[in-house]
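[Discussion] Sanity-checking designs against the backbone

I'm trying to build intuition for which residues belong where. Below is a structure token string of 275 positions. I'd appreciate it if someone posts a full sequence so I can compare it with mine line by line.
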């Protein structure tokens, strides 16, 4: 059964007039009459009685009408959905806690301003967990620490980070490595750095909050490896002894990535975004 014929049928029923239906659909009256005849022929029954003021449904037409309305509505809904298929309507963003603390708010604000019809969702976790969620299609884009090590990912944008060795300014820092929780890229890099460059036997204390880590470093509980951006954001730059590590030793940019087979519709916007 042709949905276009059903659309004409529904309009004629609503207006109780072939003439008015023709005006609404921007068709010639003869075109409407021809389409109604096609529909009647296809189902083998008469659908309208002609009366002086227009048309009324036959009993068969009354039976068809509710089904026709439902079909026409679903076709219109499908058409609208297909028109919007190339538009981003929802974006799930994964981010490390450090990136979320430093720059995610202005990013979300600008994204909302530039794309008011996109609904946004933010999930924060470690690089390890965020990467896992991206692989499982649970998020659309991800901010991770360091370059992705998986060919399923493509880098959309990159933010250079100055990586630092952070120690107490006033107290001799013991051989304690203070770090964000397991799965954080700075945790993994920091422990390798302590082994390779400091040649120290050290104890590891893991926390789920950067403010806590920096506060503990300040009072002399230990030291850490952190990006300068988070230290500045939390206003600890003047309170700590900070040693910037060279890019040759510590190259851990913040990368915005996505799956190669699931590129966001606003890919070019994200690539051009200035952090």
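Best answer:
Here's mine. Compare freely.
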């Amino acid at each position: 059964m042709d949905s276009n014929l059903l659309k004409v049928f529904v309009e004629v029923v609503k207006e109780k007039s072939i003439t008015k239906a023709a005006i609404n659909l921007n068709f010639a009256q003869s075109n409407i009459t021809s389409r109604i005849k096609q529909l009647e022929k296809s189902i083998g029954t008469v659908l309208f009685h002609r009366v002086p003021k227009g048309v009324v449904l036959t009993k068969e037409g009354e039976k068809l009408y509710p089904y026709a309305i439902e079909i026409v509505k679903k076709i219109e809904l499908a058409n609208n959905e297909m028109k919007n298929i190339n538009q981003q309507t929802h974006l799930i963003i994964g981010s490390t806690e450090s990136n979320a603390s430093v720059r995610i708010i202005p990013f979300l604000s600008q994204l909302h301003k530039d794309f008011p019809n996109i609904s946004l969702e933010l999930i924060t976790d470690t690089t390890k967990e965020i990467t896992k969620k991206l692989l499982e299609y649970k998020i659309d884009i991800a901010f991770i620490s360091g370059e992705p090590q998986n060919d399923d990912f493509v880098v959309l944008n990159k933010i250079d980070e100055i990586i630092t060795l952070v120690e107490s300014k006033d107290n001799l820092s013991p051989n304690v490595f203070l770090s964000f929780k397991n799965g954080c890229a700075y945790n993994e890099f920091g422990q390798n750095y302590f082994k390779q460059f400091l040649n120290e036997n050290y104890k590891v204390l893991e926390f789920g909050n950067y403010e806590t880590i920096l506060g503990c470093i300040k009072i002399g509980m230990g030291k850490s490896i952190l990006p300068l951006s988070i230290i500045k954001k939390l206003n600890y730059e003047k309170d700590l002894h900070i040693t910037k590590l060279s890019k040759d030793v510590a190259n851990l940019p913040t990368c915005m990535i996505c799956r190669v087979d699931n590129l966001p519709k606003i890919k070019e916007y994200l690539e051009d975004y200035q952090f």
